[in-house]
Write a structure and sequence with these properties.
By secondary structure, the chain is of the alpha+beta class. It has six helices and 17 strands.
Amino acid sequence: MQDPLKPGPGPKPVGAAVRIPKAPAPATAPGAPAPTVRLNKRMAELGLCSRREADDWIARGWVRVNGAPAVMGQPVAVDARIEIDRQAEQQQRMQVTILINKPVGYVSGQAEDGHEPAVVLVQPQNRWRECNSHMRWGHEQLRGLAPAGRLDIDSIGLLVLTQDGRVARQLIGEDSDIEKEYLVRVSYGPETVNVQSVFPPEKLALLNHGLSLDGQALRPAKVSWQNPEQLRFVLKEGKKRQIRRMCEQVGLFVTGLKRVRIGQVNLGHLPVGQWRYLAPHERF
């Protein structure tokens, strides 16, 4: 994802501010007060950082609004001039995003029920030898490293861990529209071989569109046969155990689930239990 704070050519003085272009203000009735939004939310909307990062920057005095130092919780108009100190940009450039092929038996987030989180695997000995990033591993990269999305304990595949609030918002924000692709091995009743031949086409249509979970209709999905025993799911949402629960509703039992893609980033040949850095040219 391109850094919206990236400076233009030429030297910049340390501590200088980066000016963010003003967005056009929406039309309002004459005499009506201009609509406002909390500053941290506006900064997240502009893709500058996460709300948490925005609050940290404001507390450090790294944000100015219309030329004045920002205040925590400050409401701003959508056309306000927001300036970010270079120190915030430098801090952000040090943040890492890591891709890991999560094994079965590890949880995505905090440890639970005796199971370790996938982040414990982010150690130098588990770095994929084909990772071509020039970034050097350091313990400071574990600080604030959190999953941008979940993957069930009994599933394997691509899991994103990031320190960058912009990446997290892109993948799991309320307005996220990023595709996630999965390969799902299934059985149907006693049938474990050539499941495709006995599975009713109308039930496959339901998997694509027509199911609900927790009283809410699911967004349309793309579900097709990858081979006679394996389905390919492409989703734009991620409810808890969504694919397994969808399959249960149409009589399928999931025997294996692997996430192979998030947006434009593929799992590729990354071995199970190993990790690599997101490359500078890669975009979700």
